[in-house]
User: Fold this.
Amino acid sequence: MTNKWNDKSWQKDFLNMKSHSPSDAKLLIGGVKGLKDAWRLGVLHVEYERLKKKQMRQDQQS
Assistant:
């Protein structure tokens, strides 16, 4: 498996999944500016994966 570290498609998808704080929305749209931003973006990506799995399970049950 290869990761495309510059792939932002998950960020656009995640913006539409739920409401975000202004700082998180700015980070998802604008990208990382430093170490703190990179850490927060990692946390948001884990949350995105969790929500995506939950959404896929709900779609399969329907």
